[in-house]
Amino acid sequence: MADDSASLPAQLAATTLKDAVSSSEVPKAEFSDRVPIRSIVSRPDGGAGFAGNRVRIGGWVKTGRKADKDAFAFLELNDGSCPANLQVIVDASVADLSPLVPTGTCVVVDGVLKLPPAGTKQKVELRGEKVVHVGPVDPAKYPLPKTKLTLEFLRDVVHLRPRTNTISAVARIRNALAYATHTFFYKHGFLYVHTPIVTTSDCEGAGEMFQVTTLISEADKLEKELIKNPPPSAADIEAAQLIVKEKGDIVAQLKSAKAGKGEINASVAELKKAKEHLAKVEERSKLKPGIPQKDGKIDYTQDFFARQAFLTVSGQLQVESYACCLSSVYTFGPTFRAENSHTSRHLAEFWMVEPEIAFAELKDDMNCAEAYVKFMCQWLLDNCIDDMEFMADKFDKTCINRLRMVASTPFERVSYTGAVALLEEAVKGGKKFENKVEWGIDLASEHERYLTEVKFQKPVIVYNYPKDIKAFYMRLNDDSKTVAAMDVLVPKVGELIGGSQREERLEVIQQRILDMGLPLEPYEWYLDLRRFGTVKHCGFGLGFERMLLFATGIENIRDVIPFPRYPGRADL
After folding, report:
1. 443 burial class (0-12, 13-18, 19+ CB within 10 angstroms)?
2. What phi and psi, each to the nearest 5 degrees, are found at residue 128?
3. Confidence at 203, pLDDT banded by 50, 70, 90
């Protein structure tokens, strides 16, 4: 076995695999001298057709055990390329078996693919001929034993949890949905726009935003500096003023004595230095510990951006500026909400997909949202079925059928008023909701799920919501009571998408901002889009993690994002 202390790249470079088959026979990884396990086991024959080929495999041991009185070891290797493992058999004559078998060990093995004995579940296995690399694990210290681990436990080892079957499957499904998202919008002529993470606008008007500031760190730095080097006293200032006076008197005396030019210039230079020193002393004397204030309030003109700034809650407002010249655009990125919520449906950092379409109305928005959700569901069925089968086996037996249903079923469309009427009818029939049903309420998750899971048993688009429960930028309908808003509701999660036709009329949106109690000044740039070449346009936002909850059947949103942030936790 190669020296464990050598680096993996050096070992792989020094140990060129001899007699390797051509890439057309067993496809290698694009930028590595190994064969991805997926390339072998995901074939219809389970890899049996590759028997006899010599390959290099790298992965992490899921389970390992010695057999036949330590004559050889069975290793179940997984490299993250698919849910399935590849069984590797290593003889004691090839390598020391003890470091190979602990769960979590990284192993790179050269060997020959063989057909296993009849009756075994695997279709092919690797007989190891040389162990190229071992990344050892101390079983006594490794946080992920091969026993069943809860998702809650795994949140405490967020840096290692991708090694588990569940989180690695979620990662592949998440990747597939991201790729599907870009594919869908590219195919439909949308441009991908990167909107800012740091913003001065509150898109939702909720005020639950993370503030971005350097005032606190600068105040801490100043406080330490003032302790180390106290500010000048009144006596220090007076002494500096006296020196300036003395230097000035000398210059005056030299001039009146008609001294030489060189002597006068030298004295003037001394006076200038004294004045500069005095200015620094006076400026430093004004330094006070704490956050700068003006008129009893925090002085944000002293902050990094010279004004209050926040982490974005949505890229919608900014991406609208691009829609109003490029027509069809979308943004896909992280958004942030400082909501002190500990529910299984809330994160402080989450990802949003937000398309915006010019020359379009609410019905176009609904059509786009429906097509996009169907496209993602079909994409998972076509490209991620092995991971979806894992989810169906371990978490939600209905998840694959749910994807099939959504991908193939027209979405029901019902007005908000009609939806409330249906809910009231259900209450009269004996259905109990925790939240009261009446016109004007913001539909709760239980209401949404009743509509999509019980009443219609398919996705539902609810549209034309009361204006008082929706954002200022949504277009006011002719009844002056509702806005052209729509939510897409799906089984398992309720609201998946929220969207609207945007208010393109300047006077109307100005009044809406004021009615919401928001200042106009931060939105003047947004109003310019209405002042100069206004256009009907619409858009929506899809919570990417909610889509993952819907697809996988996992219950807690903290388990479908790589590094969850929520109150009290921001690991790594």
Report:
1. buried
2. -70, 135
3. low
For 436, half-sphere exposure in the C-beta direction (CA atoms, 13 angstrom radius) is 4
Q: Which amino acid is at 499?
A: G
User: CB neighbours (10 Å) of residue 325?
Assistant: 11
Neighbour-count burial of 40, counting CB atoms closer than 10 A to its CB (0-12 exposed, 13-18 middle, 19+ buried): buried
Q: Are 77 and 85 in contact (CB under 8 A)?
A: yes
23 pLDDT exceeds 80? Answer: no
List of residues 6+ apart from 66 with CB closer than 8 A: 72, 73, 97, 101
* Burial readout 375-405 (b: 16 or more C-beta within 10 A, e: otherwise): bbbbbbeeebeebbebbbeebbeebbebbeb
Q: Where are the beta strands (DSSP E) in 198-348?
A: 198-199, 211-212, 293-294, 297-298, 309-311, 328-336
- DSSP H or E run through 510: helix 506-515
Evaluate the CA torsion angle 279, 285, 290, 292 in order and state its sign.
negative
Q: Determine whether 22 is exposed, middle or buried from the number of CB atoms within 10 Å of its CB (0-12, 13-18, 19+).
A: exposed
**116 close to 93: Cβ distance less than 8 angstroms:** no
Q: pTM of this prediction? A: 0.88
Q: How many CA atoms lie within 13 A of 234 on its CB side?
A: 0
Q: Say whether pLDDT at 569 is over 60.
A: yes
**Tokens read off for 63:** 């389970």
Higher pLDDT, 37 or 206: 37
Closest CA relative to residue 363, chosen from 505, 464, 479: 464
The single-letter DSSP state of residue 20 is: P
Strand partners, 389: none
